[in-house]
Amino acid sequence: MIFIKNQSLKSYNTFGLTYYAENFAEFNSKKELCEILHNNEDPLLILGGGSNILLTTNFKGTVLKNNILGIKKINDTNDNVIVKVGAGVVWHDFVLWCIKNNLSGVENLSLIPGSVGAAPMQNIGAYGVEIKSVFEKLDAINIANKTEESFNNNECNFKYRSSIFKEELKGKYIITHVYFKLSKKHLYNISYGDIQDELEKMEVKKLSLKSISDAIINIRSNKLPNPNKIGNSGSFFKNPIINQKKFDNLKTYYPDIIGYKTSNDKMKIAAGWMIEKAGYKGYRKGDAGVYNKQALVLINHGNASGQEILNLAKEIQNKIYIKFKIKLEPEVNII
Ligand code: EPU
What we know:
Elements: E1 2-8, E2 20-27, H1 30-38, E3 44-47, E4 53-54, E5 59-66, E6 71-76, E7 80-86, H2 91-100, H3 118-121, E8 125-126, E9 129-130, E10 135-142, E11 147-152, E12 173-183, H4 193-201, H5 209-223, E13 231-235, E14 241-243, H6 244-253, E15 259-263, E16 266-269, H7 271-277, E17 284-285, E18 288-290, E19 297-300, H8 306-324, E20 333-334
Parallel strand pairs: 2-5, 3-5, 4-20
Antiparallel strand pairs: 1-2, 6-7, 7-12, 8-9, 10-11, 10-12, 13-19, 14-16, 15-16, 17-18, 18-19
């Protein structure tokens, strides 16, 4: 266990913002976590990979970094394997482990930054797959009474980029382990157009978990900034869901609008397209900016403050509302 006073959080958030935690501790096990909780009365902020937060101020309280590691097969049948994974494992390391062990289910989620424990919080998703589809259950510590509880798939109440831990139970639990149900049979999902184009470009003759993962790594590396080089936290906003009537109306003004049907009467609009249409792709104000290859990603060119990035986000929200009468909701957690 490591305890530090007045710790810089610069290397603990992928925006690379320099704010400080009054107290900072890393824990490697449930036992260490419970010890910290027993001796703590300060406000808490739990960090996984720090890839989905925008810090806008120093944190007056205790920041906890989850370092619980380990990947273990706990049940092996003819068709499936249940794997128990420590919440502190780097998400992409887990994906690579699955590919190496010939287990299918998370290959489309290759290269998503962040930790395994953070993944169910916001039901991470990419290229036609969400974590919900392979999630079995999770163990978490209830901060109020320091006891362990488990949540199955239904109990997590997964939605598009959200779960019960981002809503009703926000800030109340610390996830320690996540269990996944992975398939021995390979059920490839290459329905997302970009994947097929990339596989063709790569001249893949026979699909495999590895070739799909490689295709996704290529697509992501071309479209999304590497947080080790340019500070960012992936998509800053969610893609808004509107009703069909409003979509049809917008389409008369903007025939090239990009939307996908999510249910009978609902359409999900590509927020990146709207932001680009509003003229913000590649826009820069000081060191806060909009990525020039993907307008849904806000970036830190080097020395932006969290407040500057937040101001830019608000400016974009206002412009989008004026232009499309649609409210953009942040995907990242703003602290
Ligand atoms: N588009 C534009 N201009 C832009 C950006 C996008 O016109 O500047 C268009 C694209 O051409 C495409 C459509 O919008 O037709 C959708 O773009 P893309 O495939 O890049 O996906 P996205 O909707 O912007 C979502 C997720 C990403 C995920 C990708 C791929 C959300 C909020 N974001 O982005 O997830 O990787 O789909 O599945 O749902 C993240 O959550 O941090 C994240 C990166």
